[in-house]
């Protein structure tokens, strides 16, 4: 069950992270943030990153083997990277319709599946 909680918290964490890192690229489309300066954008992104950490830190604490969780440190990192890229692809497809996936991206995804297999082997 700790593994499910860990992955769930990492998913929520990565939604906030993706919004913090890439959401500001769409601010120009939102009227009230059109003229936002870089400093304000950084503060908004920093605020979103706070919530990322509110979910990411407990995810790693709950999931880490030495704290009674099911995952090694390396397994946690691989899970986090796969979750990050999955959330990013969904985000890009929804908010940035001009971005297209190519076969290279598909190959990269298969290599990530291989990374997961090797990390859990």
UniProtKB/TrEMBL annotation:
Coiled coil: none annotated. It comes from the Bacteria. InterPro entries: DUF486 (IPR007437). Keywords: Membrane, Transmembrane, Transmembrane helix. Pfam families: DMT_6. PANTHER family: DMT FAMILY PROTEIN. This is DMT family protein.
